[in-house]
Amino acid sequence: MPRQRLTAPAYAILLAASLLCAAPQAQAADLAAAFAAAEQHDRSYAAERAAHDTAQPRRDQAAALWRPGVQFQATAGLGSSETDTRGAQFSAPGFGTSQGVDFSTSVTGGASTRWALQASQPLYNPQRRAQQRQLNTAAEVAERSWQVAGQQLAQRVAQAWFGLALSRESLAVLDAQLAAVQRISQEAQDRYDLGDAPITATHEARARLALLRAQRLAEQNDVAVKERVLTDLTGLPVAALEAQAPTHVAADTTPLPAWQAEAEAHNLQLQLQQLAVDNAQAAADRLRAASSASVDLVAQVGQDRIHGSGDYGSARSNATNALVGVQLTVPLWTGGMQDAREREAIALLEKERATLDAVREQVAQNVHSAWLQLATGAERVRALGEALAASNERLAATQLGQEVGDRTLLDVLSAENDQAAARLQLTQARTDWLLARLQLATLSGRPGEAALQALSAAMTTTTNPGAKSAD
Question: Which first-to-last residue range defines the signal peptide (predicted)?
């Protein structure tokens, strides 16, 4: 069969369809995806990544301290040389041997060159050993600081995420209140027109409506600001940020001693401070070792050359030297500088040790505080869930009472306001519980990504306090 050619309109439709299929779609991002995007986009995290890249070069420096070193020097210029030798022995073919011969050479402003090649291998050097420990400790500090940056990024993403979610929830509550109050305001106006309600009911509804509109404008601004914060942090478009308030949280029954033991063993701030102690100890050892002897294996070869004219006419001198051996270096006196530096290093070491004790105490206090928030937060969520259910029932009863004349419009507006406040308080309590759990995970040394995954799991598990509370 002959091939059929596509008409221009058909070709255009096919091309458009293929482009639509190939175009990237803006996909909604959850909390884990927001953290992954922040890892690639956040500026401060990029700075920490660059600092982390210094770890391996520092390890390479530490290893190179005990490798051989080779250096070459060369000099060229104008120089002068005067030599005077007394009592030398001279012998030459046809001249015999002479004793007590004097030799003198002189070159003034002649061409001078000098070169030297030297290699050395440290054999015993306590100062280098302490410096090696300092470099390895600095590499470990870069590694731990990178992990701390990941934890801090996870906390910033979570706070920005839930901050936006709370603002959006508050805006949704205000929208629901506005719709209800608009309906009530219209009903009040209709009843007033029929002579069935006083004008005060209409004024009360209109006042409440105006107040809600003002609150909604302020909340819209707050949502826009928090969307900008999360967008700047993650680089994701606003349309992809589906930050939603948690509807339930999972219970955590881990006892306080277990959290404290995990924090004592794995807390990154404690590890960083312990590394600071190790670094101060290595600095003190390095200064103490500066007054110790060192031994190096050395090999060198060089040549000095000069030629020109002097007091005895034209002259030329070449001197070549070579050496292979062991070099001993013993510091003798530094005018008291070395002793002062050692005392300073010891004082700094004591400071870091005291800081380590303070950090350990602070971490224990933070773990206790976060655990209390977690333990009481579950009861708070359960209580607020019951309060919201009661507020919903009260609102329904008040609306019914207003219809039959037992309740006023002001009673309905008050019930609407209390129901909205209870809903927001419950959402805030769930968010506070999740952030307390994230803080505990951070204090126990868990990586930021793993902590956020556990947080997401806590939001998707339904066996929890307050999970069935009415919203």
Answer: 1-28
What does the block give as tokens for 332? 């003798």
Please give the mean pLDDT across all residues of the chain. 84
Could you tell me if 231 and 218 are in contact, meaning their C-beta atoms sit under 8 angstroms apart? no
Sign of CA dihedral 457, 461, 463, 466: positive
Give strand pairing partners of 120.
69, 298
pLDDT of residue 28: 53
**Tokens, residue 341:** 């530096």
pLDDT at 134: 92
Long-range contacts formed by 404-411: CB under 8 A, 24+ apart: 408/201, 409/184, 409/188, 409/197, 409/201, 409/204, 409/205, 410/201, 410/204
Instruction: Give the burial string for 315-344 (b: 16+ CB within 10 Å, else e).
Output: beeeeeeeeeeeeeeeeeeeeeeeeebbee
Segment 76-92 mean pLDDT: 82
Q: What angle, 0 to 180 degrees and rounded to 10, lies between the N-to-C axes of helices 409-443 and 126-193?
A: 170
Q: Do residues 58 and 138 make contact, with C-beta atoms less than 8 angstroms apart? A: yes
Q: How far apart are CA 441 and CA 454, in angstroms?
A: 9
Stated pTM of the model: 0.75
Which tens digits make up the pLDDT trace of 3-32?
444 343 343 333 333 333 333 344 456 888
What tokens does 333 get? Answer: 């006196």
Residue 447, classed as helix, strand or coil, is coil
Chain-centroid distance, C-alpha 433: 24
The DSSP-derived string for 225-252 is HHHHHHHHHH---GGGB-----S-----
Phi-psi map region of 87: left, alpha, beta (phi>0 left; psi -120 to 50 alpha): left
- Res 81 pLDDT > 60: yes
- Which residue's structure tokens are 């530096």? 341
C-alpha 286/C-alpha 402 separation (Å) is 84
Classify residue 174 by burial, with Cβ atoms within 10 Å: 0-12, 13-18, 19+: buried
Tokens 């002959």 belong to 2
Q: Are 242 and 28 in contact (CB under 8 A)?
A: yes
CB 243 within 8 A of CB 164: yes
Q: What pLDDT, in 10s, does the model give residues 214-234? A: 989 999 999 999 999 999 999
Kindly report the length of the chain.
471
